[in-house]
Specification:
heterodimer, A: mainly beta, 6-stranded mixed sheet, globular, B: mainly beta, 4-stranded antiparallel sheet
Chain lengths: 114, 116
């Protein structure tokens, strides 16, 4: 079975500052990893995904994440945030091979202040 | 392409009432899911379907039933609503690529349900 821990429930940051949202996972099998974003009163939208290959994954809106197998982490980063990045961010994991369910973390609320 | 749509967007029920939430997708996806989202708990899977006519239980299935009579639709039913079912409900769908489904899911806008 897989599980996901998002280490920060809220992250306040000033506009144009860098940000890192932390995600750790546990799994006994190979995994696929995802970051989703949820803007206020909307559904979830895929930011980026790691399936295989390069451990540095680039997504939409200038976000990137790095898969670290030894530390079982998949932290999300952006070098310079905008007010419009204010949203809730969810890390999710799925076991590789065949059909497996997507397991979500509890979410991190990113608040960007001017 | 509308993607994943949900009906209704908002609903208020009294304890004991029943209702059905409708999810529709126009992407010809094989797999569909119902989640509930509660503060501080992320999204929890209620039921899912791997194809027309098949459904399976997720993490929190009690108090809910589902049906997938058509490939594009996935219905979530509450037979006797309880205040603990107050939540935001999301539907999602995903496709199978070859023999390996890696579960990139596409989400609807959500239904906000309040049970008094």
């Amino acid at each position: 079975a897989q599980s996901v821990t998002q280490l920060d429930s809220q992250v306040p940051v000033f506009e144009e500052a860098p940000v890192e949202l932390r995600c750790n996972y546990s799994s006994s099998v190979s995994v696929y990893l995802f970051w989703y974003v949820q803007y206020p009163n909307q559904g979830l939208q895929l930011l980026l995904k790691y399936l295989s290959g390069s451990t540095l994954v680039k997504g939409i809106n200038g976000f990137e994440a790095e898969f670290n197998k030894s530390q079982t982490s998949f932290h999300l980063r952006k070098p310079s945030v905008h007010i419009s990045d204010t949203a809730e961010y969810f890390c999710a994991v799925s076991g590789a091979g065949g059909y497996n369910k997507l397991i979500f973390g509890a979410g991190t609320r990113l608040a960007v202040h001017p | 392409n509308a993607g994943v749509t949900q009906t209704p967007k908002f609903r208020v029920l009294k304890t004991g009432q029943s209702m059905t939430l409708l999810c529709a997708q126009d992407m010809n996806h094989e797999y569909m899911y119902w989640y509930r989202q509660d503060p501080g708990m992320g999204l929890r899977l209620i039921h899912y379907s791997v194809g027309e006519g098949t459904t399976a239980k997720g993490e929190v299935p009690d108090g809910y039933n589902v049906s997938r009579l058509k490939k594009q639709n996935f219905l979530l039913g509450l037979e006797s609503a309880a205040p603990s079912q107050t939540s935001v409900y999301f539907c999602a769908s995903s496709y199978k690529r070859g023999a390996d489904l890696y579960n990139e899911q596409f989400f609807g806008p959500g239904t906000r349900l309040t049970v008094l």
